[in-house]
């Protein structure tokens, strides 16, 4: 059985994935990079199914970073249309599965207005779902998020002494989103690439060589097994509170 060896009581409540390696997946097959992005859709949907089987409450995926604008204009344009397409193609089935879809990232600037509108419609459609929250990090940067939180506090006239960790947390893009317990980083890279910098201070990190378009629920289950072998100490001592 797929979920063999997973302790249902210690399933992480929030898993975050860096969906990377689409371009390399395509290049290995002699295809244009964009075919790799297209193939990533199936991987995402299978990961969501796996997350639902596991009973995760939160799944967050990194879809487009604030640095990804550096790519060739054609690839950027493709990614904007592709992400809009995914929402249109998949939101109804995700809605039926009880998935609440949310977005984190900078909404203004270069993101096409039509895509922002699709994102708003999608969050609105699924806002009352409670089975699992799928957060899509789009035009997201961990540093940008912290800058935006501090800016919001300054704009509110917050005195310096009141700017503490809880104040910053309350001004992150989604203050309700708990810190990830587990981050799965695909494509054989050992870096965070500006993902959730604030939130992953104590997340367990699992690195896999799997390129995102090859990612399936079984890889998610394997990452959860690895997570369950770790000791989380949060700076303390095992067995103490
Ligand atoms: C991840 O795949 C998708 C995005 C960053 C948008 P890449 O496009 O980065 O694929 P590689 O890393 O070049 O293989
Ligand atoms: C990370 O992938 C961002 C996303 C998956 C959206 P990148 O391909 O942008 O990361 P680097 O450049 O390899 O660090
Ligand atoms: Mg990449």
Overview of the structural elements:
It contains seven helices and six strands. The protein has 241 residues and is an alpha/beta fold. Strands 3-4-2-1-5-6 form a six-stranded parallel β-sheet, sandwiched between helices. The two termini are 35 Å apart. It binds 3-methylbut-3-enyl trihydrogen diphosphate (IPE) (2 copies) and magnesium ion. One 3-methylbut-3-enyl trihydrogen diphosphate is lined by residues 19-24, 64, 68, 79, 187, 212.
Structural class: alpha/beta
The best one-word shape is globular
Order of strands, widest sheet: 3-4-2-1-5-6
User: How would you characterize the largest beta sheet?
Assistant: 6 strands, parallel
Portion of residues in beta strands equals 5-15%
**Rounded Rg:** 18 Å
**End-to-end distance:** 35 Å
What is the chain-wise order of helices and strands? EHHEHEHEHHEEH
Small ligands present:
3-methylbut-3-enyl trihydrogen diphosphate, magnesium ion
- Helix count, DSSP H or I runs of 4 or more residues: 7
Percent of residues in helices: 40-55%
CATH superfamily: Decaprenyl diphosphate synthase-like
Q: How many domains, as an integer? A: 1
Task: Examine the secondary-structure arrangement and name the CATH architecture.
Answer: 3-Layer(aba) Sandwich
Spans of at least 5 consecutive residues whose pLDDT stays below 50 are none
Average residue-wise pLDDT: 97
**What is the total tally of β strands?**
6
CATH level 3 topology = Undecaprenyl pyrophosphate synthetase
């Amino acid at each position: 059985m797929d979920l063999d060896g997973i302790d249902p009581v210690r399933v992480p409540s929030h898993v975050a994935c860096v969906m990377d390696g689409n371009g390399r997946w395509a290049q290995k097959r002699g295809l244009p990079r964009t075919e790799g992005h297209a193939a990533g859709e199936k991987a995402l949907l299978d990961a969501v199914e796996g997350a639902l089987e596991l009973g995760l409450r939160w799944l967050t995926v990194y879809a487009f970073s604030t640095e990804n604008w550096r790519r060739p204009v054609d690839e950027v344009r493709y990614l904007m249309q592709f992400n809009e397409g995914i929402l249109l193609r998949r939101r109804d089935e995700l809605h039926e599965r009880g998935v609440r879809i949310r977005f984190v990232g900078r909404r203004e600037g270069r993101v096409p207005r039509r895509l922002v509108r699709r994102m708003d419609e999608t969050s609105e459609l699924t806002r009352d779902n409670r089975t699992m929250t799928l957060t899509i990090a789009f035009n997201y940067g961990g540093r940008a998020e912290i800058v935006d939180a501090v800016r919001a506090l300054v704009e509110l006239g917050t005195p310096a002494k009141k700017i503490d960790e809880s104040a910053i947390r309350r001004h992150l893009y989604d203050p309700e989103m708990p810190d990830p317990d587990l981050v799965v980083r695909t494509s054989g890279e050992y870096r965070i690439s500006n993902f959730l910098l604030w939130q992953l201070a104590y997340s367990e990190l699992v690195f896999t060589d799997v390129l995102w378009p090859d990612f399936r629920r079984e890889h998610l289950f394997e990452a959860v097994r690895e997570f369950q072998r770790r000791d989380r100490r949060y700076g303390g001592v095992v067995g103490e509170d």
